[in-house]
Every structure is written in structure tokens, then in C-alpha cells.
Automatic annotation (TrEMBL):
The lineage of its organism: Bacteria, Bacillati, Bacillota, Bacilli, Bacillales. Gene3D superfamilies: Tetracycline Repressor, domain 2. Residues 35-54 bind DNA. It comes from the Bacteria. Residues 12-72 form the HTH tetR-type domain. It comes from Paenibacillus dokdonensis. Keywords: DNA-binding, Transcription, Transcription regulation. This is TetR/AcrR family transcriptional regulator.
Length: 209
């Protein structure tokens, strides 16, 4: 009989090896290539340990994405730069964040697919909010608009995220759609898209300042 005791005696090193292997696979080949078999091979462990430590592939991918997003240091650092005007901080955050996101095939799509795990779990949402510096984003929006209602600020943040992420997410879906070539859609540069959005969205605030 096969001895499965190793599943219960493995320490946190193996868990981190599995997580790091998943992150590396996403970075190198894209989310679609991060299968459980590929992950276990890269981590030099067995499938039973992957399932034991993370419970499911969805949960493992979710944690790997959270760790990967947490490495976008220059994007998050700009939120702390008080030498910049708040609207410029926010603009630079989105530009740098999306620039990083575009480097990883399918990551934007996978983030949307994983959103149900984030929104359906208080623990996952708290972790996501910490990684994404949600409080800092909301306070920056408050600086720009002078709005103090958290519900309104939250709605504004969702609207901005939707507007800046949509082109990236749609591009991910089309590129991963299947055998038929995706239709070519010509869009302005990322920097120009964000500039257009901010000019429209924050027009009344810049006029009143």
C-alpha cells in the first residue's frame, strides 16, 4: 500500500515551492499553461500535495495572482508619492499597473474569472484589498473629488477600474478565444486611453479647482 503520510508531514516550504512554481509558470507561459500537472512538476512535488495545501486549482491560482500583483512595486509606490498631485498619482498608478498586467498572457482574464472567489470570501477580499491598497486608492479619489461618502467613492473606483481594465480584458479573451483569429481592434496607446478617461471623468473637478 502506498504511504500517503508525506501529505500530512510536509512543511510550509513545500507550500511556498508550489506557490512560487505557479507564479513562475504564469510569468513565463501564461495562466492557461499553469495546469496542476505542470505546477507539480515545476515544484518537484506530487499532485496530492498541491491539492492538500490549496484545496483546488482555483484557490491556488487566486493566491498566485495575488502574489504576482503584489510585485508591481512601482505601480503601488506612486500612490505614496505625495510630491505628485493626487490626480497624477492615480493616473500613473493605472498606467503602470496595466503596463505590467499586459506583460502576462491571460492574467487580466484570469483576474476577472477569480473575482467570484474574492467577492464571496471576506478573507480573500481583505487580502485583495490589502494587496491592491484599496484604502489608499479611495483616499486619493477623495483628495481629487473632495467626496467623503465611502459608498460613492467605492462606486467611482469600480467605474474607473471597469473603464481602464475593459480593453485589456477583452484583448485577453479574444487572444485566447480559440482557433479562429481574433478580429483586429485598433485602440489608442494605453497612456492615451487613460488620459482620455481622466479628462472626461474628472473634468468637473479640474474645472472647479
Amino acid at each position: 500500500m502506498k504511504d500517503d503520510s508525506s501529505v500530512h508531514t510536509t512543511g510550509t516550504d513545500t507550500k511556498m515551492d508550489i506557490l512560487n512554481a505557479t507564479v513562475e509558470l504564469i510569468q513565463e507561459e501564461g495562466v492557461a499553461c499553469a495546469t496542476l500537472r505542470r505546477i507539480s512538476e515545476k515544484a518537484e512535488t506530487n499532485l496530492a500535495l498541491v491539492n492538500y495545501h490549496f484545496g483546488s486549482k482555483d484557490k491556488l491560482i487566486s493566491k498566485a495572482i495575488g502574489k504576482l500583483v503584489g510585485t508591481f512595486d512601482d505601480a503601488f509606490a506612486v500612490l505614496e508619492d505625495d510630491s505628485m498631485e493626487p490626480i497624477e498619482r492615480l493616473k500613473q498608478f493605472f498606467y503602470r499597473y496595466l503596463s505590467h498586467l499586459q506583460q502576462y498572457p491571460g492574467l487580466a482574464k484570469e483576474m476577472m474569472d477569480q473575482s467570484r472567489l474574492i467577492l464571496c470570501s471576506q478573507h480573500e477580499y481583505a487580502r485583495y484589498s490589502k494587496v491592491m491598497k484599496t484604502e489608499k486608492l479611495l483616499s486619493t479619489l477623495s483628495e481629487i473629488t473632495q467626496e467623503s461618502d465611502d459608498t460613492v467613492l467605492g462606486g467611482m473606483m469600480v467605474q474607473l477600474y471597469g473603464a481602464v481594465f475593459y480593453p485589456v480584458i477583452m484583448n485577453s479573451y479574444m487572444n485566447l478565444a480559440g482557433e479562429e483569429p481574433a478580429p483586429e481592434i485598433h485602440l489608442p496607446t494605453l497612456e492615451h486611453q487613460i488620459e482620455m478617461l481622466f479628462n472626461l471623468y474628472f473634468h468637473k473637478y479640474s474645472q472647479s479647482s
